[in-house]
Design goal:
Layout lengths: L1 H23 L8 H20 L5 H9 L12 H21 L5 H26 L7 H21 L5 H25 L21
Helix pairs in contact: 1-2, 1-4, 2-4, 2-6, 4-5, 4-7, 5-6, 5-7
Length: about 210
């Protein structure tokens, strides 16, 4: 588990490369929903790599800017809660949305809302609160999550893939996961005396904040 806590985002990058190669040589329809959903999965891996590895100081920024923490290296988000939220929750939901897309398209809709929510979070909320023009995760949120989710939304609305009731349920679930999956889980797993501490490189550089 120690290795996983320190390198889950590096493993995600490897998975992104593998998934990209598999899609490239598969018979998938590059203009269909399945491709967009898998592209959303790949975008998640790349997004997490940007947040936690390069430039990688998203954890420190989240703790300092959003939670006003005096211990941004471990509170309220720590390496254990970050791994749990991103891997055991994030990877599972996104993978299931791709695997079950033809049987449970509503789940894919929810993940697209989560991706779009990441764009809002990184581009507006984080930058406004920190008074910055960039934060780790913003690049992939803008150039991957945003276009992929928007193309997905256009497709499902144009072809009436989801009913009105399903759209309402999906939006509700998307909002719930965006809030519970981040804020509430971080709060539940917070510990001021946590031994799961972020590395100095994952904290905000002094020249930025």
């Amino acid at each position: 588990m120690i290795f996983l806590r320190k390198h889950w985002f590096d493993i995600g990058l490897i998975l992104a490369v593998i998934a990209t190669l598999v899609l490239r040589f598969s018979n998938i329809d590059f203009f269909g929903l399945q491709f967009l959903i898998w592209l959303n999965v790949i975008s998640l891996f790349l997004h997490q790599f940007e947040e936690y590895r390069y430039p990688g100081y998203f954890p420190g920024m989240l703790n300092s800017v959003i939670f006003k923490s005096k211990m941004p290296d471990r509170y309220p988000l720590n390496t254990n809660s970050a791994m749990f939220i991103n891997v055991f929750l994030g990877w599972m939901v996104y993978f299931l949305s791709a695997i079950l897309y033809d049987k449970f398209i509503l789940l894919a809709f929810v993940t697209m809302l989560i991706s779009f929510g990441n764009f809002i979070m990184h581009t507006f909320i984080m930058n406004i609160k920190a008074k910055t023009f960039y934060n780790p995760g913003q690049f992939t949120a803008t150039f991957l999550f945003l276009p992929v989710s928007c193309m997905f939304f256009v497709y499902i609305f144009e072809y009436n893939v989801l009913s009105t009731l399903e759209l309402i349920i999906g939006i509700g679930l998307g909002l719930f996961i965006n809030i519970f999956g981040l804020i509430k889980l971080i709060d539940i797993m917070k510990n001021e005396n946590s031994e799961y501490v972020f590395e100095p490189r994952q904290l905000i550089p002094k020249k930025i904040f």
